[in-house]
Design goal:
five-stranded mixed sheet; globular; Maltoporin, Chain A
Length: 654
């Protein structure tokens, strides 16, 4: 588990690691700050937590964060995220502070980022548009990659897994999935470098392998990364990182075209190439300058057949460019001022069977943003962050966003301290290119979705009130109340749909006012140097204020329980349990998906200083949805067993 106070979980059972429980974070204030000192509540997924849960993708890494909801992306394979009842379109995902491109211009697919080079992940909830701009209306997820240590190191992992009777080949004892990764790092004086490779293959799975459909896709994912940096002094550094992700996804399903069920086969080839670079340097009077940028392309080719006949050949080419600059002034009367400029550009070109699926052909947009922030230590007990951002968009004109966050330490004695956090933020999200220009033709299924170029940006007011209690490294607890009031929510306008020649035509519209509110609680207890337990509970109400109906796919109750136990210096046990209550699956609030409860476990054994072995079972209780039900959002994957080896060798300089 993670908390808004400490990086917990895997470090609990290691006495030597207790000093790392208060790490340095950067996302909340855009500058380095101890986690417990941050005025903005931050949750952290540590590197050890990633190992203890055998996380391979970003989706795996985030699934145990309290209150986070992971759900399948509509109409395709993959997972998206919801924070405090707000959708994935309203959550900004960053890699080292630079945005990650959304899958085909719509939402971030969390399964399409492998985490071989990840050090930790930072999550802030609530509106952060004043700090990070559009799409940060619901919060920010910042993936922090590893720093290259001095010397030379080589590390890697090999693991295999099985779905038992649901293996694609129908053989319960066979290997269905396999995963390999390797990372090589070297640092020599002023130069640092890293190469990493990560591959994840799955044959898919089927509830009945003897039948045609695959409930889990056959997939092959590969990711390669090359990083280099030059730091001749403490006052200057420059770095560059190239990342290449490739995926081939095979889907088999039955498609009902009255009066027959036809065999549908879809192959999707994906390539994401990302080049980022930056520099940090110090000017006179200790002025810190940080400039960085990213150029990213995301290209897909999707081929779909029905009973062997080509039904769709879709090509999508996406390009994202982002430049960010920040100047941090020297501390002045216990105030830390920052000012910066961001530029962002998006391009999208998509066709189906040679016909443009975007109105007007290829589309693009860009925006310019200026921001100002002050992190002020007003007293020894009171810390306040004030931020403001101005955005000028080519299509939507000017926009301003404001944020005020504060932390007041009202009690501190005998290694026990208590903090009160209060935050108000304005959020906004500019419509993405698909919402404005898409022409999604599914006439053979009886409907078309057409983009609306006249959409207005979404906006919100976000309020967060939290209490944190910390007893040294032994226990901590956190309670946070939240309320997000959203205006001009963009969604498919069902009420104004038109029927033309028997085909229903839908469009996007600013048709809804919504609110999400609730409470998040977390607690961790280091019972002794060998055992630690944690728990978290989130209650969420998410309602469409226009219709007074509950928003779909937002369960009211989500609970997490975790336990880490070290039998000795070599053997560790990890347990993670999740509960999710029932949730509405239709806008009329007539159909509900059942609640569910799952348990994951893993055992790690340190064979030698360089090699460790692990074995685990995900979803021990075999909770799985009914794939014939129209509304059932329980887990797609049933029970999954795996085992593997990790190795780690390093040589420090003399």
């Amino acid at each position: 588990m993670t908390s808004g106070l400490f990086t917990t979980t895997s470090t609990w059972a290691n006495v030597d690691a207790i000093q790392t429980l208060d790490p340095i974070v950067v996302t909340a204030t855009r500058s380095e700050k101890k986690l417990t000192d941050s005025p903005i509540r931050t949750e952290v997924v540590s590197e050890n937590e990633l190992k203890r849960t055998n996380a391979s993708t970003l989706k795996d890494a985030l699934e145990n964060i309290p209150g986070i909801l992971l759900r399948e992306i509509h109409g395709k394979s993959g997972y998206e995220i919801s924070l405090q009842g707000l959708s994935s379109d309203q959550v900004l995902v960053l890699i080292d502070g630079l945005p990650l491109a959304a899958s085909t211009g719509s939402t971030i697919d969390l399964d399409q980022y492998l985490i071989a080079s990840v050090d930790h992940i930072e999550v802030i909830k609530g509106a952060a548009s004043a700090q990070y701009g559009s799409a940060a209306m619901g919060g920010v997820i910042n993936i922090i990659t590893k720093k290259v240590a001095d010397g030379v190191s080589v590390s890697g992992q090999v693991d295999i897994g099985s779905y038992g009777k649901q293996n694609a080949n129908g053989k319960a004892a066979s290997i269905n999935n396999h995963h390999e990764k390797i990372k090589i790092e070297a640092s020599n004086g002023d130069f640092k470098g890293r190469f990493s490779a990560d591959q994840l293959k799955s044959d898919g799975f089927a509830v009945d392998p003897a039948l045609y459909p695959l409930q889990g896709d056959e997939q092959n994912r590969q990711q390669y990364s090359i990083y280099g940096a030059w730091q001749p002094s403490d006052q200057f550094s420059i770095w560059a990182d190239f990342n290449d992700y490739q995926e081939t996804d095979h889907q088999r399903s039955l498609n009902f075209v009255p009066p027959f069920y036809l065999k549908q086969y879809k192959v999707e080839d994906i390539q994401r190439q990302r080049l980022s670079a930056g520099s940090k340097f110090t000017l006179l009077n200790n002025i810190q300058v940080d400039i960085k940028g990213v150029h990213e392309t995301y290209d897909t080719t999707s081929t779909q057949t029905l009973d062997g006949y080509l039904s769709a050949l879709r090509n999508s080419d996406q390009e994202n460019n982002h430049f960010s600059s920040q100047v941090s002034l020297p501390t002045w009367y216990r105030q830390n001022w920052q000012l910066g400029y961001d530029w962002h550009e998006e391009k999208l070109d998509q066709s189906n069977n040679g016909k443009f699926e975007l109105q007007g052909g290829a589309v693009s947009r860009d925006r310019h943003e200026f921001y100002l922030q002050n992190d002020a230590q007003l007293t020894d007990q009171l810390d306040v962050v004030v931020g403001w951002r101005f955005q000028n968009d080519d299509d939507f004109g000017d926009h301003n966003a404001f944020k005020l966050s504060s932390k007041y330490r009202f009690y501190e004695q005998n290694d026990l301290f208590a903090d009160l956090r209060l935050s108000y933020g304005q959020g906004y999200r500019v419509p993405n290119l698909k919402e404005r220009f898409y022409s999604f033709d599914h006439s053979y299924l009886g409907y078309i979705v057409i983009g609306n170029p006249n959409l207005k940006p979404e906006s919100s007011n976000s309020y967060q009130l939290g209490l944190s209690l910390v007893k040294n490294e032994f226990w901590n607890a956190d309670v946070n109340l939240f309320w997000n009031d959203v205006k001009d929510l963009i969604q498919t306008d069902y009420d104004n749909a038109q029927v033309v020649n028997g085909i229903t035509q839908y469009s996007y519209s600013n048709v809804a006012q919504a609110e999400t509110k609730g409470i998040e609680t977390t607690a961790q207890w280091h019972i002794n140097p060998y055992l630690a337990i944690s728990g978290a509970y989130t209650y969420t109400e998410a309602k469409d204020k226009t219709t007074n109906k509950w928003l779909t796919r937002r369960p009211k109750h989500i609970a997490r329980i975790g336990a880490d136990y070290s039998f000795n210096d070599q053997l560790d046990l990890t347990l993670r349990a999740r509960y999710q209550s029932e949730e509405f699956g239709d806008s009329t609030n007539l159909q509900k998906s059942p609640d569910w409860f799952s348990i994951d476990t893993q055992i790690d054994y340190q064979i030698s200083p360089y090699i460790s072995a692990f074995i685990g079972i995900d979803n021990i209780l075999n909770q799985q949805r009914d794939f014939n039900a129209s509304v059932d959002y329980r887990p797609i994957e049933g029970r999954y067993g795996y085992t593997g080896l990790r190795f780690n060798w390093n040589k420090k300089p003399k």
